[in-house]
Amino acid sequence: MRALLVDRSVPGGLRLGEAPDPVPAPNQALVRVTATSLNYGEVAFGIRNAPQGTILGWDAAGIVERAAADGSGPAPGTRVVTLAADGAWAELRAVDTDLMGAVPQEADLGAISTVPVAGASALRALHRLGPILGRRVLVTGATGGVGRYAVQLAHLGGAQVVASTGDPAAHGESLRELGADEVVSGPHAVTEPVDGVLDLVGGDQLVSAYDRLAGGGTLVTVGHAADSGESFPAGAFSGGHERHDRSIVTFFLLACRNLAPDLTWLAGGVAAGRLTPRISWRGSWREAAKATEALLGRRLHGKAVLEIESDPKIA
């Protein structure tokens, strides 16, 4: 099969080459990939740190070519959205069936490929907040892939959504269209306490967002775009009688088992138009270097999608 292989000697660090077909475990289906979406973390850190020749990639959508041997998961020919720690940037992918969701027949698989990390991270993070109907929820880094899903999902859940972005003038209108009630230039600009935070940035923004939490509130740390540590001032965790019992929690998406129902529900939402993935870059996987350069340069406010073109020798 063909795949994008880590090769730090070429621009973008990825080379289209040949690799052995994956051999599925009994609980895995073999999927022919048609589209994959890129995430900042795998591009910024994966390409830099992975061994040469590695096939990376978390998100992919495609069609089941061979069902799992243990009888779990979808049948051959089913359109699916998939998540795994690697292997998405290839023509074929072996995926655990509990990390695979069914996709409506009419859905755009390029758009669906944005669902796994961005959509599922936002959904699971909101679950960690508990009931959000009528509560104020702050989303930092709201213009990124996870952030845009988080704004929409929080709005669908009945929250009053406060979206934080570095440039409200440029992105305020689009965030309000997704369901944001307020758009601010950072957690420091939030004037009223919030009941929950989905922090996608880390660093100083996480510290500032925690300071905006009301008593009993929870901050879920999801992303680390700032790539810097957090330093809390003295007394940050002591609180007063009105701001006690505040929590900071985190989770690792790939350690969340049985994501299949989440992925299926999210894919259905995208297919039906209830959820809108903003795709800022879309093109052939032969142009992966252009996509990774734009992502690393912070020029994309949304997702980058690579189309996995069929090998002309077998098309």
From TrEMBL:
Domain of life (superkingdom): Bacteria
Pfam families xrefs: ADH_N, ADH_zinc_N_2
Domain annotation Enoyl reductase (ER): ranges: 9-306
Regions crossing the membrane: none
A GO MF term: oxidoreductase activity
The name this protein goes by in its record: Oxidoreductase
Signal peptide limits: none
Gene3D superfamilies from the UniProt entry: Medium-chain alcohol dehydrogenases, catalytic domain, NAD(P)-binding Rossmann-like Domain
